Amino acid sequence: QRSPLNDFQVLRGTELQHLLHAVIPGPWQEDVADAEECARLCGPLLDCRAFHYNMSSNGCQLLPWTQHSPHMQLQRSGCCDLFQKKDYVRSCLMDNGVGYRGTVATTAGGLPCQAWRHRFPNDHKYTPTLRNGLEENFCRNPDGDPGGPWCYTTNPEVRFQSCGIKSCQEAACIWCNGEDYRGAVDHTESGRECQRWDLQHPHPHPFEPGKFPDQGLDDNYCRNPDGSERPWCYTIDPQLEREFCDLPHCGSEAQPSREATTFSCFRGKGEGYRGTANTTTTGVPCQRWDAQSPHQHRFAPEKYACKDLRENFCRNPDGSEAPWCFTSRPGMRVAFCYQIQRCTDDVRPEDCYYGSGEQYRGSVSKTRKGVQCQRWSAETPHKPQYTPSSVPQAQLKENFCRNPDGDSHGPWCYTIDPGTPFDYCALRRCNDDQPLSILDPPDQVQFEKCGKRVDRLDQRRSRLR
Amino acid sequence: VVGGHPGNSPWTVSLRNRQGQHFCGGSLVKEQWVLSARQCFSSCHEPLTGYEVWLGTLFQNPQPGEPGLQQIPVAKMVCGPSGSQLVLLKLKRSVILNQRVALICLPPGRYVVPPGTKCEIAGWGETKGTSDDVVLNVALLKVISNQKCNVKHRGRVREHEMCTEGLLVPMGACEGDYGGPLACFTHDCWVLEGIIIPNRVCARPGWPAIFTRVSVFVDWIHKVIQL
Q1: Nearest to A450 among B17, B174, B191 (CB)
Q2: Exposed e or buried b for every residue in B28-53, given b needs 16+ CB within 10 A?
Q3: Which of B17, B126, B149, B157 has the highest number of chain A CBs within 10 A, making it the mutation to test binding with A?
Q4: Which letter, b or e, does each residue of B120-143 get, where b requires 16 or more Cβ atoms within 10 Å of its Cβ?
């Protein structure tokens, strides 16, 4: 069940470009089944270190280089993904580093390494071959030294020295539950190899990397996308779906929390909420986190020290949409605590307006989220429907907040954020403003027609629904 | 929906998170636009990669390949005016309208639903055992005036909110229904008058339920869709 892609690290939408134009990369092999077949072709070849995979043409191009080879550079690509052998691009060691093919060339003591093809100043018995990878003066471990890759040094006084390259295990530690772990360990605590996150075999799963861009689900590295107690992965063992990875903790003190700690409201997903709300939105009391009834669960407080799973307070230990809890009602396992207000992410209003602000002539020029307004006379990033010349009475000056269309929610502006055409401004109604209430207006809006009337025939059907 | 019964609401959509789980409801107001509740999303600028709306099915967990099921990724989100508790979701592509998927009309701006009007909520949320919770449930509720509602809610109901009568039997929207529609049948047409928002309690006997009044924000909706 082991995929040949497990030996590769992918860079999506990326190509390797040789800067010496005289060097011609290898031919494209068309109509291969998939990237796994390319990996099957490249894997056993000693002179293949990477390959381009073209998703649309199902073609692959084997490469004798990686991004660390001389005169190479990575560049954005619309057609290809770049798969590189992990041994050549990983900066840490698996096992004792016999497979290490990185480019560190200095010993732990800071001495430059002697090139393996040289016999001076330190003579030795090794002959560089494609198989032993004794290239240039890079650190290697041709004799399986338990201390990991080493090299002969250029100092005649010091024949050889270890290079002190860290194992992947110790190269990156985990804070809290390791949601931020982005290290390169790809084996579980029992030594099983991890299944790639972009593969659905041997174990199908919902964690498609494209759907979780912020979870770093690269290749087959240990990760924690679901708020488990520590990083884990699906294994290539069909008998064992998933297993934790054995990674060192960074320290006992809590990690600088990703989310600001709040008490009376929650920001974002509420992972930083540390208030004392302890009922669900619907008023059902929460179950204590240290209890296993009426609902059994894995969120033991001692395993989630950073998540403050105290008493029965609403919390968000697993990156859900909002703070939640197990409920004390047997028939209702979990529920959100939406009754906790969201912390407003609006900036403080800097001025006020009357009515709906059509007469506002102040100079506030940013939205309620603090985004700068676009000038009314500008055409980018948003082509305006309202311009100083098209509605002169609105006095659309500079990039000041105005209300040229009588928007009932107040002055607004086009924004300089390409993703946000318009937004309301950092303004509020003036305290002494008494807007007409819609509830008792002199002329109650009458409902003449529906916005989308279906034709008579459909109507009967829609009435039947 | 507590105290409801299985029913059909072709404009009610299910919002799905990245694990494919239902977490809120929504209403289809345009082929490419869904109106939902702000509380359903962690921020106005959250990356929505992997979030989808599912339509055209009555099942909370439809099997892949179910006829009529449409699963459409969410392209972007626009938060409503402050205090509206609304968001508009733009879909990556237009839905296909058919018997199972229909638009719901928007009311005229500032329209106030007359007290006594019968309206309907729909959702795949918590039923508290009162109905079959694997399918869409609907419940009929009667609108009451804000004035009457504020007697029970001690003046907290604002004019951009509206209420339905609190019945003696538990009946109303609940966890997982937020963002869904309160639709009223007016002049031969179903009209989206309210959006289900998290209440302090849900389906609490004798307590009126509070919804966001859509007619106050219709100008914002048209403006976002137009811009």
Answers
A1: B191
A2: bbbebbbbbbbbbbbebbeebebbbb
A3: B126
A4: bbbbbbbbbebbebebbbbbebeb
Q: A286 and A327 in contact (C-beta within 8 Å)?
A: yes
DSSP assigned state of B220: H
Single out the residue of A137, A132, A128 nearest to residue A105, CA to CA: A137
d(CA A15, CA A81): 7
Q: Helix, strand, or coil here: A462? A: helix
- Nearest-by-Cβ selection for B146 from A226, A338, A439: A439
8 Å CB contact between B177 and B196: yes
Closest CA in chain B for residue A465? B8
Measured in degrees and rounded to the nearest 5, phi and psi for residue A215 equal -100, 0
Pairing of strands B86-91, B70-79: antiparallel
For residue A270, which residues of chain B lie inside 8 Å, CB to CB?
Answer: 42
DSSP, collapsed to helix, strand or coil, labels residue B11 as: coil
Question: Minimal Cα distance from B113: which residue of A?
Answer: A447
Tokens of A277: 């709300």
Q: Are A349 and A426 in contact (CB under 8 A)?
A: yes
**Rounded to whole angstroms, how far apart are CA atoms B41 and B21?**
14
B135 DSSP β-pair partners = B59
Question: Do residues A372 and A366 lie in contact, with contact meaning Cβ atoms separated by under 8 Å?
Answer: yes
Summarised one tens digit per residue, pLDDT across range A364-385 is 999 999 999 999 999 999 999 9
Nearest neighbour of B174 by CB, restricted to A282, A382, A448? A282
List phi, psi (to 5°) of A270: 80, 20
A338: nearest CA partner in chain B: B198
Collect all residues of chain A within an 8 Å Cβ-Cβ radius of residue B40: 321
Cβ B44–A461 below 8 Å, yes or no? no
Instruction: Report the residue of chain B nearest A451, measured CA to CA.
Output: B105
Contact B189, B111 (CB under 8 A): no
Q: Which of A200, A409, A422 to mutate to test the interface with B (most CBs of B within 10 A)?
A: A409
Pick from B18, B50, B198: which is nearest to A281 by CB? Answer: B198
- How many CB atoms are closer than 10 A to CB A260? 11
Q: What is the pLDDT of residues A125-136, one digit of tens each?
A: 999 998 899 999
**Chain B touched by A449 (CB under 8 Å):** yes
Please determine, for residue A454, whether its predicted confidence score (pLDDT) is greater than 70: no
ipTM higher than threshold 0.95: no
